[in-house]
Design a protein that fits this description.
The protein contains twelve helices and ten strands. By secondary structure, it is an alpha/beta fold.
Length: about 325
């Protein structure tokens, strides 16, 4: 396996890891060993006791390579995996998730695709009970609208699915456009997924389910603080720049809603975030005019459109 040259790898599967070798093992067990696949695990500064377990674990998988890094972020870890990857296609996984049986056969159906990104359906389960969760519902709903002959639905998928998992990316697309993950504690994958989608000339969608997301009450997605909202604010503003650049203004993220989500931390937190937002604008006037636009759009959506909900996700329907 180690003698393969760059052209002999069809897939590079990149997995960041931190302090959960047991779950990583469950993930690795779902990836069959095959000559044209490389699996790259990047350890993001796990505690020593877990590092020892991880080293022993990886020794049992001859097709797995591992990189040890000092503690930083999952985004930084993924970038290290990207730098090492040699496959024609890039596939990402989180170490507490896993692939479904037969997923490689499904990927193989698209290995010669003209598309530069292929999107797949997902499922999700609660980590402790294995009962079906809800984290896949939004993704699958968005994908269900896809129609290659309808440009609007293609753009819908490009602009709204901002994660790297349950997709396959042409490595050439990522390298040529210098697409990287953000080295931040939350939303490290948003700009990566959005920029890749904006740069891709062709995308495709498969109705097949290849990936399972696990849900846990202790995951980063359930955490919040003023500092994390600041990080999200930066990501929102950079994402909005991309939406502007590629003429998708209608998909811009709602900065107002994010800023005012900090009201539970007090009015001082809201003021702090408004000051923080100011750095992304050329003038205070441009910031407040933008905020007014967001408020106006929210009012239009609220009063003009009917809302329909699927579990915890809200969609707008004319």
């Amino acid at each position: 396996m180690g003698d393969c040259n760059m052209n002999e790898y069809t897939y590079s599967i990149i997995i960041p890891h931190w302090n959960q070798p047991y779950l990583l093992n469950e993930c690795l067990k779902t990836i069959p060993q095959r000559r044209d696949i490389e699996v790259i695990v990047v350890d993001d500064g796990s505690d020593e006791v877990y590092v020892n377990e991880l080293k022993a674990l990886v020794e049992s998988y001859s097709h797995v390579k591992i990189i040890f890094e000092a503690k930083r972020t999952a985004g930084y870890a993924r970038n290290q995996g990207l730098a090492m990857a040699k496959g024609e296609w890039l596939v990402f996984a989180d170490s507490d998730d896993y692939f479904l049986d037969g997923f490689l056969n499904i990927l193989d159906n698209y290995r010669n695709s003209q598309a530069q990104i292929v999107y797949f359906n997902t499922t999700s389960v609660y980590l402790n009970t294995s009962e079906i969760a809800k984290r896949h519902i939004y993704t699958n709903k968005v994908l269900s609208f896809f129609n290659l002959s309808d440009r609007r639905t293609v753009d819908f998928v490009r602009c709204l699915l901002l994660g790297p998992c349950s997709k396959m990316f042409k490595r050439e697309l990522i390298v040529q456009n210098q697409v990287l993950f953000d080295d931040v504690p939350v939303m490290n994958d948003t700009i990566f997924a959005l920029k890749a989608a904006m740069c891709a000339t062709d995308i495709d969608v498969s109705s097949s389910v290849i990936y399972c997301i696990t849900a846990s009450a202790n995951s980063m997605i359930s955490r919040n603080s003023v500092e994390l909202i600041k990080v999200r604010l930066g990501v929102y503003m950079r994402a909005n720049e991309l939406y502007e650049k590629y003429h998708f203004k209608q998909y811009k993220m709602n900065v107002v809603a994010l800023i005012f989500s900090a009201r539970k931390f007090g009015i001082g937190a809201v003021k702090e975030l408004l000051i923080c937002a100011r750095q992304y604008y050329s003038s205070a006037c441009s910031m407040y005019s933008d905020l007014l636009v967001y408020v106006f759009k929210w009012l239009v959506i609220t009063f003009k459109y009917k809302l329909f909900k699927i579990d915890n996700y809200t969609f707008y329907k004319g």
